[in-house]
Hints:
Order of helices and strands: HHHHHHEEEEEHHHHHHHHH
Largest sheet: 3 strands, antiparallel
Structural class: mainly alpha
Number of strands: 5
Shape: globular
Amino acid sequence: xxxxxxxxxxxxxxxxxxxxxxxxxxxxxxxxxxxxxxxxxxxxxxxxxxxxxxxxxxxxxxxxxxxxxxxxxxxxxxxxxxxxxxxxxxxxxxxxxxxxxxxxxxxxxxxxxxxxxxxxxxxxxxxxxxxxxxxxxxxxxxxxxxxxxxxxxxxxxxxxxxxxxxxxxxxxxxxxxxxxxxxxxxxxxxxxxxxxxxxxxxxxxxxxxxxxxxxxxxxxxxxxxxxxxxxxxxxxxxxxxxxxxxxxxxxxxxxxxxxxxxxxxxxxxxxxxxxxxxxxxxxxxxxxxxxxxxxxxxxxxxxxxxxxxxxxxxxxxxxxxxxxxxxxxxxxxxxxxxxxxxxxxxxxxxxxxxxxxxxxxxxxxxxxxxxxx
Length: 373
């Protein structure tokens, strides 16, 4: 029993630290309660609401990828949604071509993560080793995303076909022929033991929830590790960090590729969720929407970003019938957050709650006589 408690304590120490808000037993209890409620959601909500929550959880993975690179690394990428789309297209193309041969999406999911990483490595080598910083990185990543979107919109011609997958232009990824398979569901296992997770089912939702929790805990451990401290030093002062002997360009490249891989994972999951991916995701609006999620939550804290993404996703669903009004209102929320809480609304509220809980815990317990009077 003591050995199990020691293992649990060592695990929690890796997840706790000054790089993340919420390190107390109160926080972890609240977090476990929140996850438990999310696990129970399919029993409490409609199928439509569960499907939407699956999509919102996928969006929170994308938001965490930007939180990592911007909030902890100090690198603002305005093209994070491009890695999301690259991952989605890679998953769909490999899945369409291999699902009948392999019977699963193992390689498709790996491609959805690996292809954005390779693309980010090529782009990052040019950016960081030419000493681009700040607004120049933001502009370049957005321009690259727009160029990719422009190209993908021109791929309606049958020439742009990869095996059994046609890129489809504005119509999105689709089978090349009538007898070819479409974008597959997430499928794991082999032969008769393969299990498919349809995006419309509760099983898919639980799988996405498990992946989201795993990504969140993994990133918490990362940012509270020695690498996380070096990453924070790069965010605060690149020149000083370099004088201490760290290869800042390699660190920036590494975290850029890692964030691209996480964004690609979310794009692959989205494609499996809707069995569809299209080039609109490369445009300005999706890239800015990710920034809104992160800023409103608090770019220097993973928990705040996840909460803000889920909350803003819910608001977006309520306003979906009004079209572009939804994005306009979320833009207003962004402006208000930057003016009233530069560190993020959710992070600010969380900090207040933490101080209140700490103050209550530090107060000496009153005696029964004091309570009676």
